[in-house]
Amino acid sequence: MPKKDFETDEDRMIYNLVVHRDMINWVIEQMAKEGIPCERTKGNSPKGDILIIKPEDASRVKDIIRHIQSKYNG
């Protein structure tokens, strides 16, 4: 990702939060396409940003995340 110049620290923080929010929403959409029910957490949950509804889906979710990471991180 190219280095971005921000006018203020707040502009940089807002940009990072928007990117994070959009990425989480995209991951939730990918899981929905795979038939994995999940939802966005609220309140800065220390357990993460996405709640997997059925614990038995955890291994499939890990596979999806690994695939996403390998595809976009090289």
Compute the number of strand runs: 2
Strand order of the largest sheet: 1-2
Helix content bin: 55-70%
Computed structural class:
mainly alpha
Distance between the termini: 13 Å
Instruction: Please count the helical segments.
Output: 2
Poorly predicted ranges: none
Explain what you see.
By secondary structure, the protein is mainly alpha-helical. 55% of the residues lie in helices and 8% in strands. Strands 1-2 form a two-stranded antiparallel sheet. It is globular, with a radius of gyration of 15 Å. The mean pLDDT is 90.
Topology:
Blueprint: H1 9-33, E1 38-40, E2 50-52, H2 58-73
Antiparallel strand pairs: 1-2
Keywords, please?
55% helix; mainly alpha; two-stranded antiparallel sheet; 2 strands; 74 residues
Précis, in short:
This protein has 74 residues and is mainly alpha-helical. It has helices at residues 9-33, 58-73; strands spanning 38-40, 50-52. Strands 1-2 form a two-stranded antiparallel sheet.
